[in-house]
Fold:
Amino acid sequence: MISETILLKTKTSLPASRDKQLLRTRLMDAITHNLAGKLTTVIAPAGFGKTTLLTQTIHHHQLSAAWVSLDDRDNDSIRFWRYVLQAVIAAGSPLLSERLSPLGQLLPGMTIYTFLDAFINELIDIPGPLVIVLDDYHRIADERIHEGLSYFIDYLPDHIHVIISSRAELPFSTSKWRVREQLDELAIGQLQFTLEETQAFYREVSHLPLSPGQIKRLFERTEGWVAGLQLVSISLRSTMDYDRYIDSFSGLHRNIADYLFNEVMANLPSAIHSFLLQTSVLERINAALCNDVTGKTDGQDMLTKLRTMNLFLIPLDPADTWFRYHHLFSEFLRSLIRRNHPLLWSQGNRSASRSFMAQGMTDEAINHAILGEDYEYAIYLLGEHAPVLFQRGEFSTLLRWFEAIEQRAELPSGLSLLHSFMLVVTGQLVRAAAALARIEERHLPKADAGERRQIRSGLLFVKSNLVFYNYDFAGWYRFSEEITGEVLPENPIFYNFNYNMSEPLVRRTAMGLKGVLSPDTEAIACQFMGLIESHGWKDSLINLYVNQSLAEGLYEWNRLDESLACLHKGEQSPRFEEIAGLYVPGQITLAGLQAVRGSMEQAIDTIHHAVEHVASRSEFQWIRPLRVFLACLYVRNGQLNKAKQELSGLHLSALDRPTPDRLFEFLALARYLGARRKEAEALRLLGIMKPQAEREKCLMSLTEISIRQALLEAQRGQRSAALQYLREALMIGEANGYIRSFVDEGKAMAALLRASQLERSRCADVSQGVSEAYLAKLLGLFPENREPGLAKGSLIEPLTQQELVIIQLIKNGSANKSIARELSLTEGTIKVYLSRIYGKLGVSSRTQALVIAEELQLLEPLDADHKAPGS
Structure:
């Protein structure tokens, strides 16, 4: 289950149905009649009864509903979707909880769109209709959340309906659902009380002896504003001169609210008046929090009195444990206390912070410490809990806290470094550089020797990341000369941050420079790894990721033996198989090497074994990129039916609209469609993907998209378009030394490159920006009849003892199954060993392996314990 200390149940609990409310059947019916569509919006200013209406509708019609009460802290995509997920879990059966809970644990280990796809797939199997209510959506300003929600609504199954309440128009387009008649909109005009509803309210709910004329004047003065009518009903209890009172106010809703709230507060007993002010600092209230904030012990009694007086107290759970004030009333109270009692506001938030912490609610504790300007306590809490918060992946929330504190207080050096690191990994590079400069200016001069070493070592890691993200290679060289010999940071966050949560290749990530390759990138990678390893941190994730990125770059440069050596180096780390963001790219790169060397069967076996491995670790989101690459291997091998089977299992369709985080998948689909001679469908997908790749500045995706467009246009006889797309790919390719991206495409690419050469003399535009030497180099690398194998006496890497045993058993004629039984291993593990043996020997078959092993004198009889002589 998702941790209760992280997610508040009160945010996902359907508000209880209150007594003394007028049932608005005309609006409830309007909502329920549209549940077959995708979306209902309820948009109106504060105080028009949006939340009450939705609560009434759900209770009255007994709808199955997942409810999320949103607030400002939900402007974090990870946090937002965790709450939506918890709400759906809370609304469903225990079986649904078992299926959905693992998704929450995987965040932030997958991209939001991958999560949404998995979430939507699970929603398909929910029996019966479900309504998902997002209350107070105007509190959300994060553009990524808006984009994700629009995508989510678009692909929801028919029996799931979303209702959004907001004070403002939605910040994403709803026109496509309106055109399809899948959208119902309730606005201020419908939410205003009618005259008949106003009369019923004062007769049946307020029980005030008002004449029809007085009610009509109130209706005209308030314009059917629900909160205004309720406030008037409270105020009228303290006067008998109804006519004079009704004539005493006029104006805008906000002015009416201020006037009426003041009227209400002025007539309350002093104890309740004080209680309301002091507890207004709390967004959610229970008796223990009230006691801590007021310094008294009557919190439960006071909450009961407020409910009895109908003073805008809304229960948040069926047990009547948690409450909140009506938003409009809460805003009025907070404005009052901050304006007239600033010390009370500060003290209340400080007390709330410690009270929330005592109840295990760290997020709320930190937030209230900042509101109460108790920066020392906020810094203490961040110092204690930042690693946990960081691992949750709610970077937006953490950054807001850091920046709120830094405006008024100085963070310790460790937290300042963490703040800088977060700015780097979230792509805010200019701000990160400025933050690092401040650390050097403010913290280094006054630090003692031990702290100074730790600050410099932290700077090493953060600047190293900044270099890789910002391509500041000259800056790296200068800095690396200064820090030689420094120790690594004590805080493991810096060197154990997982740089790859979803990409099938590390080079597609920001850490992998999104495809940028140059002699500088290789030199810095090697120098950086040497420095890290000299300090004993060979197995740190940053070192392993740089090594994996280097392996992929070397493969692209066609330095296959060096690439394989890097892969084997990474595999030797005990963390390699534990971190899917390393393991999956490593296996895909290995399979690519095997395929290039002619061992397609081994390549396919490698990916199958990798699928089994990640499935055994329940890291199911990583199965998709592996199966996508497997489909690509099948297409290259002419096994189109198997490729179709893999892609169909991933629910990929030529009619889909690719999203930025799924380019790898749709590139594979475009490859398959091309092989099926469905060029138009493939080109449509590529046309959508290309602007996305340009926005992401991913050179790998741009190159592959242009290559695929070129080959498809050539395939359908559009020579001019094909050569133009090829030129786009070649310009990126030459700037970065790309080779395998072109050569792996085989004969069709060779023919297109030759056509480009022939066209150069007739049309300069075809080759502008691409050298003749680069074209010639690529053409010279297409294999004709090259024999695999190694020169006698050479070996990329020595065979291990177990590998020597396996090669000897192969010589003895043992099949894989027999070898597995002999060595007490699985057949899949034997296939992996064979893959490594073939890679080290530079061969693609058993026969070739035995020939090379014989030449290198590796085949000697084994003793009874399966040991080679001399071992």
Summary: The beta strands are 39-43, 65-69, 130-135, 160-166, 183-186, 313-315, 323-325.
